[in-house]
Design brief:
- The structure is a single chain.
- By secondary structure, this protein is mostly helical.
- It has 21 helices and four strands.
- Among the domains are: 108 residues, no CATH class; 71 residues, no CATH class.
- Helix content is 46%, strand content 2%.
- The chain has a two-stranded antiparallel ribbon with strand order 1-2. Strands 3-4 form a two-stranded antiparallel sheet.
- Strand 1 and strand 2 form a beta hairpin.
- About 1% of the residues have low confidence.
């Protein structure tokens, strides 16, 4: 059993960088092994970033999308960007409904500012975020006919989850109805949330709806539940609702929000279906949810990054435990590839300067992920949904295009910057390319042999990397390999 003092092997250092950033560059692996050495010190360095308030603004959606892509390829704190992408999925909000680039940009800036901070404070900020207000209809939540959309998703997706680990419901329809009352009359003006008290549900105006009480049958609050008017009606209610939700206990007596949030972050950083014992261990180690103010996301992420469960697939054996592998998100696949190859996209449209010269927006759409426009409030489907036949063909096309990019500067693929073109030993060449792409130990011997046969045309020719074909083709093949699609 390892812990924060456990030394990192080269394979584990690469694994850490792949999961917390965009690819494992050799210089970064070497730095971890030389300066950090242990799980805890490496995690501390990765988390020691100053939150950059990046805002992907633009006059139109493609401009904002492209600015975000461009920023990801040069961002100096990859873990911050990985956390922002997680929260963008968790609090899924789409331009296709919000229809305001400025509001979407403001939300992404909010996620950058708060991505590793206090989770309760983040949820309270999401309550009054104008993009979310548009997306989940808070602005259409009127006192006469309260709209339940945000009240439902606040519990189902953002905090509690539908059921606990024992299959017991975490909330009821009546809880949704009552919480919806708290959000009546909220809207925004010039990007700032405001409450129209004339359109707010006050108990005196609607006596038939009863007191504003929630969780009378769940949450461990007893049959009396909790009132969210203890701090007064009006503006205070929505914060009080969050305070109550964050005190919710499941049928095991564990904090429900802490357990669910830890599970989601484990699924994102470690692997699908983490054991409940692992969930509880990282919650306990981080102190996440241990008191009303103990909601430090950074501490929870650190506990994940030093736990054995995180490193289960970091070993050198090809693919490790297959069920513990995670499929790279399309945005991760694209950005990792560009960063590892030392390349950038070209122009305002951020297109690949080679092959079919496709814009990143189009390529990512074909792969199944367009930033700022997740398909629903549930965000994107992860794992196997990323590798449908159509999505894989789009990945393969991107690999072909980037390795076909010619010309000058960083928009061109330049293998001579990455490997020694004077190498002639085909096995050494394959190893060099795998090293550049951060997966030197993730291919099987059979897969490596196939790549050697490609270089030598099944042993019939000597290798000459200066021909301008074989090096490019080898990089493309590795980028298209099953191992490169996985973390």
């Amino acid at each position: 059993m390892g812990d924060e003092t456990t030394p990192l092997s080269p394979a584990e250092a690469r694994h850490l960088l792949r999961r917390t950033g965009f690819g494992a560059q050799k210089k970064d692996v070497d730095r971890i092994l030389l300066l950090d050495k242990t799980r805890g010190r490496a995690a501390d360095r990765l988390l020691n970033f100053r939150s950059t308030p990046f805002r992907p603004n633009g006059s139109e959606f493609p401009n904002a999308h492209n600015k975000w892509i461009k920023y990801l390829t040069i961002a100096r704190s990859p873990l911050q960007e990985k956390l922002v992408l997680f929260w963008h999925d968790h609090f899924a909000t789409a331009i296709s409904k919000v229809a305001d680039v400025g509001l979407m940009a403001d939300q992404i800036q909010l996620l950058h500012e708060r991505c590793k901070g206090n989770f309760k404070d983040l949820v309270k900020a999401i309550n009054v975020n104008p993009a979310m207000m548009e997306f989940l209809d808070t602005v259409r939540n009127d006192k006469d006919v309260p709209n339940e959309n945000y009240a439902r998703e606040l519990q189902e997706l953002f905090t509690l989850g539908v059921d606990d680990t024992n299959g017991n419901p975490n909330y009821t329809q009546e809880d949704i109805v009552q919480i919806a009352r708290a959000f009546t009359g909220w809207g925004y003006d010039r990007g700032k949330a405001v409450l129209d008290e004339g359109n707010h549900d006050f108990m005196a105006d609607f006596p038939a709806r009863g007191p504003k009480v929630i969780y009378q049958s769940t949450g461990g609050f007893g049959s009396g539940g909790r009132s969210f008017t203890v701090n007064g009606e009006g503006t205070a209610e929505i914060d009080t609702v969050i305070d109550i939700i964050f005190a919710h206990r499941d049928s095991n007596g564990r904090n429900t929000v802490a357990r669910r949030t830890a599970r989601r972050l484990l699924e994102y950083f470690a692997h699908p279906n983490p054991d409940t014992a692992v969930v509880d261990a990282v919650v306990a180690q981080s102190g996440f949810g241990s008191s009303p103010d103990s909601w430090d996301v950074g501490a929870l992420v650190r506990a994940i990054l030093v736990h054995d469960a995180f490193y289960e697939t970091g070993a050198a054996a090809p693919f490790g435990a297959q069920t513990k592998k995670s499929v790279k998100w399309p945005i991760d696949y694209v950005v990792s590839t560009l960063r590892l190859l030392g390349m950038r996209l070209k122009g305002r449209d951020q297109y690949v300067d080679g092959g079919s010269f496709r814009a990143a927006l189009d390529g990512l759409s074909d792969m199944g992920q367009v930033l700022l426009d997740p398909p629903s409030v549930f965000g994107w489907d992860w794992e196997t949904s990323w590798i449908s036949s159509a999505a894989l063909l789009a990945r393969y096309g991107f690999a072909r295009d980037v390795t076909s990019a010619r010309g000058h500067g960083t928009t061109a693929f330049r293998p001579e910057r990455l490997i020694d073109l004077d190498l002639t030993d085909p096995a050494a060449i394959v190893d060099a390319v795998l090293g550049v792409l951060g997966i030197p130990d993730q291919l099987t011997d059979g897969e490596k042999t196939t790549l050697v046969n490609y270089l030598t045309e099944n042993g019939t020719k000597a290798v000459d990397l200066h021909d301008g074909v074989k090096a490019n083709g080898l990089f493309a093949l590795v980028l298209q390999s099953p191992a490169y699609q996985l973390h």
